[in-house]
Design goal:
This protein is mainly alpha-helical. It contains two helices and no strands. The longest helix has 95 residues.
Length: 176
């Protein structure tokens, strides 16, 4: 009877230790799985940052291209304004050489009106031109910021990928 009691005590002690070891293995595996999940989340976040930086770069390039087209159009518009102004003044300057004082005075008045009109048109053109230049500069800044963010995000992604691989290897070893 004592033997039976002793055997049952030994058996229960061994089964208790076996359960503890199994429980410890499960908790180790769970911890390793948590590490993998955390590493995967971090990797996903860095991947999102890379995508964000990439979209910032492409948006900046689109804005720069759009502004370049506007600038070229405005430069051709400036040439047309100057050409029209020159063509408008040409006959008035001929009229200034007339011997008739009334014609000369009328020409002077017309020249002043033409100059005023040209200045107003040029001022409006200049506002548009400055806005296009500012738009181009903003696009450039977006590209620069995106490239800086991209560099940082790629470094972080590389590190997160390394940590993820290490965590996956540890889980693989811990599962065996």
């Amino acid at each position: 009877m004592r033997r039976l009691l002793l055997l049952s005590l030994v058996f229960s002690t061994l089964s208790f230790f076996a359960q503890n070891l199994a429980g410890q293995d499960n908790s180790k595996v769970q911890k390793l799985e948590e590490k993998v999940k955390t590493a995967q989340d971090k990797f996903d976040k860095t991947e999102a940052k890379v995508n964000s930086a990439d979209s910032l770069i492409s948006a900046g390039k689109d804005i720069m291209q759009e502004a370049s087209v506007e600038i070229r159009e405005l430069e051709s518009e400036q040439k047309m304004l100057e050409k029209d102004h020159f063509n408008e003044l040409k006959p008035l300057e001929k009229q200034l050489r007339s011997k008739d004082k009334e014609e000369v005075n009328a020409a002077k008045t017309d020249i002043k009106a033409a100059e005023t009109k040209f200045k107003e048109e040029f001022k409006a053109w200049n506002v548009k031109y400055k806005a296009a230049l500012k738009k181009y500069d903003n696009g450039q800044k977006m590209v620069q910021k995106g490239e800086e963010n991209m560099k940082k995000a790629k470094e972080a992604k590389k590190e997160a990928e390394k940590v993820l691989k290490e965590a996956e290897k540890a889980l693989e070893k811990g599962s065996k």
